[in-house]
Design brief:
The protein is an alpha+beta fold. It has 5 helices and 16 strands. The chain folds into 2 domains: about 5-150, 2-Layer Sandwich (Alpha-Beta Plaits); about 200-270. The strands form 2 sheets. Strands 1-7-9-8-3-4-5-2-6 form a 9-stranded mixed beta sheet, sandwiched between helices. A 7-stranded antiparallel beta sheet has the order 15-14-11-12-13-10-16, with helices on both faces. The protein is globular.
Length: about 290
């Protein structure tokens, strides 16, 4: 079974009698719906609704949680959590030397001897398990993990979008279980709820493909010189992109090429996603 050990991930523990109440009030994830054995996506937002930190969250005992995030943002994430903790009885700490292993392909756990193997709930069409701790394995295929993410339309900050520059809807947190629309208030909740109820989300993660190699992540996607989005992770002829779906639909309807530098690109909605391209053309004001 394919697996990869991720060297750029860190774990933050939040534990104590007030841990769940504290996190439920600030994060996008609905912890009431988080079951043992699951790792769900989520974000800590700015008051304006932009993603400041993204993560996967799982339960760790009766009053504890693990937040898996990028290593390079972990210290800032801890400081931000402590800023919001106030008088809550919750201990917050970064775990040293965290080893994160992902394995996919069937229902087996990422490590049969590791009781902390978790189902990565972002993936709908393939079983993906994450395990924390244990010994490092020889080998692993980090490129196969990249290919799996791209093929399933699973975006992550750093490689696919920049923190502080995206709303949860932009990166499909509304469709991967990363936003609780039935929970109470959290930081940035008003903006996210308004986008959901009004159906105004226009930037979305799409799967990009081309007849030749795609240019590097960060390359702007354009139609007749006008920006429509940006490439994220790339593997050969396929990749992820965050793009304006209204502008993409207008370009397709008009028969205009979507370009990444000099490479024509096709953009598709991930097969499992519920959103669709909007009907009708984009007005001059919207473009």
């Amino acid at each position: 079974m394919p697996f990869a050990q991720l060297k750029d991930r860190a774990l933050i523990s939040v534990s104590g009698p007030d841990a769940e109440h504290f996190l439920q009030n600030i994060l996008t994830t609905d912890l009431d719906a988080l079951r043992p054995g699951e790792a769900k996506p989520g974000a800590l937002l700015s008051p304006q609704g932009k993603i400041l930190f993204d993560f996967l969250i799982s339960r760790a005992g009766e009053n504890g949680f693990r937040l898996e995030c990028r290593t390079d943002i972990a210290d800032d994430f801890v400081r931000r959590l402590m800023l919001y903790r106030l008088r809550a009885k919750a201990d917050i700490a970064k775990q040293d030397q965290a080893l994160v292993t992902v394995e996919w392909g069937d229902d087996s756990t990422a490590s049969p001897s590791d009781s902390m193997a978790l189902a990565d709930t972002r993936f709908r069409d393939v079983s993906v398990r994450r395990a924390y701790g244990g010994e490092a394995k020889d080998g692993g295929d980090s490129n196969a993990w990249l290919v799996l993410r791209i093929g399933n339309g699973i975006a992550e900050s750093g490689s696919d979008y920049q923190l502080g520059d995206a709303f949860p809807h932009d990166v499909l947190l509304d469709e991967t279980g990363g936003v609780g629309f039935k929970k109470g208030c959290y930081i940035g909740q008003e903006v996210v709820s308004r986008m959901q109820h009004r159906g105004t989300a226009r930037r979305r993660v799409l799967i990009a493909s081309a007849d030749g190699p795609l240019p590097a992540a960060g390359t702007e996607l354009t139609v007749a010189g006008r920006p429509v989005g940006t490439l994220g992770s790339v593997d050969g002829r396929t990749g992820l992109a965050v793009a304006r779906i209204d502008r993409v639909k207008a370009a397709v309807d008009a028969g205009e090429a979507i370009m990444a530098d000099e490479v024509p690109v096709a953009l598709a909605i991930p097969a499992w996603a519920k959103f669709t391209f909007p009907e009708g053309a984009v007005s001059a004001e919207e473009a």
